[in-house]
User: What shape does this take?
Amino acid sequence: MADRQRVVIAGAGFAGFTAARRLSRLAKGAIEIVLVNPTDYFLYLPLLPEVAAGVLDPRKVAIPLSGNLPGVRHLLAAVDRVDADARRVECTDAEGNRRELRYDRLLLAVGSVNKLLPIPGVAEHAHGFRSIAEALYLRDHLIRQIELADASDDPKEREARCTFVVVGAGYTGTEVAAQGQLLTRDAKRRRPGLRDQPDRWLLVDKAPRILPELDERLSRTAHRTLVGRGLDIRPGITVSEATADGVKLSDGEFVPTRSLIWCVGVRPDPLVESLGLPTERGRLLVDEYLSVPGRPEIFACGDAAAVPDLTRPGEYTAMTAQHATRQGTRAADNIAASYGRKERRPYRHGDLGFVVDLGGAKAAANPLGVPLSGLAAKAVTRGYHLLAVPGGRTRIAGNWLLDAVLPRQTVQLDLVRGSAVPLDSTTPERPHAQDG
Assistant: This one.
């Protein structure tokens, strides 16, 4: 077995996890598959806002790699460098030890990190939302602000602690604001001292409307639902400065707050730029077969790859979980084809529709282009997630059922400090790790 070809997959997000599972089924042990990832689980990101809101236990969205990827060897490490000429990957394991790994084929699926903008104070005072650690920190932080507001006799401090600003009104930001508002209202309702203290949630975005990725009709539905619940939505507005006492908006208004949640989007993992290979806005350029031109042994997919969109000539596929999952499957097939086990085929996929959970019984969805809202959209949204998540469906459904019939536990566990998940971290999934 020592002479088996080795395929190294960097990253176990939607693209990497799907590719590893697919390739293992195709190879049937004929090749060695090594999956390099800094955690021992695949994170189902779309349900992370429900973790922050206390609806789901964090373990429900963390799908273990062991048991779900038979025939795949997992290396608990983060890739630091790729030597394309020597066909070698350099990485650091969970205890800080350096490792080198030779490969015959390499699939880069390292994903993305928080997008940073050069706005004064944001890196110091805002927190992102890309990992379980960040979700747990946010949940504790929101509950803490309500508790501290209740303990304060200063009206201005109480108002600031009951004010929450979310920057970015795409999927993540909209869902975080929707779920977060329900959590803080629940926490405030249990404190008689805050009965007359309003809670204020601001959702700001420089785009002209929320959820710009969605059909305009669905965007209006989501906007109407959230405004009706009391959210203050500010399209065309963003943050121009952040301080310890609040944020200054681009229209000049200063909003006193202790909570700035950064959901403006993502950027490709910085590892991609370090490869010295052609990129497009930080994403590794690949052809329609997901291989790097001139480097047939290197493949890339997901957020780290600029994949030609054959349904929209001249454009690249969007950085979505839907594309990442299907690209992972196609990449695995094309890697198998390089060993004569499949036929090489280009990646082509049109969007099947999108779902957005607005908390409670509210959602917006357009499966196969059919616009839905209310309970119908909620059913489709949860049904989609149960079909898409690769494991733990019964546990997730059980959590949803319990949340529907039992009061939510609004306690802070104080497991993750804010200093452990800074906005500029490239490893928010490992709060104990230090960026090199």
Remarks:
- The longest strand covers residues 72-83.
